[in-house]
Specification:
- It is built from 4 helices and 5 strands; from the N terminus they run E-H-E-E-H-E-E-H-H.
- By secondary structure, it is an alpha+beta fold.
- Strand 2 and strand 3 form a beta hairpin.
- Helix 3 (112-118) packs antiparallel against helix 4 (131-153).
- It binds flavin-adenine dinucleotide.
Length: 154
């Protein structure tokens, strides 16, 4: 737990939901969600990662407890998705996505390593994942995203 003077308890929440955005509008809407998330989350010190795959959203939110819960409460009422299910919610020792404000990752066939992770099951069913599994999944997405960015830089 972060116990530096003045620090607040760090909380991590991961949920999954079904996308409810008509296909032709998806890219534009996801871009708008990411734009809003970056703006809002930065103000309240929330970091995280948003994954979009096969009609599912999977999102990690982490930061001060009140900020994470308030953000999730807003998100869960958003009509652009439905059936939000919390897969993991717990105090955290440290951030897993500290260098991410928010990024949306749509899978492409080129993302072999991620797809391999996602193919733990015949079809992608986040609701069936345990908290630990879903955290591992998002961490591997983060790792691949980071490597892709480093490769693009250099
Ligand atoms: P604005 O962006 O100014 O929007 C104003 C209002 O319009 C809000 O009530 C919003 O819900 C609604 N709205 C905007 N566009 C649409 C649309 N196309 N269809 C229906 N209603 C719309 N917000 C965060 O702050 N942080 C996050 O990490 C985050 N993650 C999200 C993840 C997912 C999967 C989804 C679906 C939404 C996410 N959002 C996130 C957005 C969140 O649900 C709220 O829309 C947003 O926080 C409201 O911020 P705002 O008041 O600045 O609204």
């Amino acid at each position: 737990m972060d116990r530096t003077p003045g620090s607040r308890t760090l909380h991590q929440l991961i949920y999954s939901s079904r996308v409810r955005i008509p296909w032709p509008d998806q890219d534009r809407e996801v871009e708008s969600i990411v734009h809003t998330s970056i703006r809002n989350n930065r103000l309240v010190d929330v970091t995280g990662l948003l994954l979009v795959h096969e009609g599912w959203f999977v999102q990690a939110l982490e930061g001060p407890t009140e900020a994470v819960l308030a953000t999730y409460s807003r998100i869960s009422g958003d009509p652009r998705h439905e059936d939000c299910k919390v897969l993991h919610a717990a105090p955290a020792e440290r951030r897993s996505f500290e260098d991410w404000n928010m990024c949306a990752r749509r899978m492409t066939p080129a993302d072999d390593a991620i797809l391999e992770t996602l193919s733990m099951r015949a079809s992608f069913e986040p609701y069936a994942l345990t908290g630990l599994q879903v955290l591992r999944l998002l961490k591997s997405v983060r790792g691949i995203q980071r490597r892709t960015q480093l490769a693009a830089l250099g």
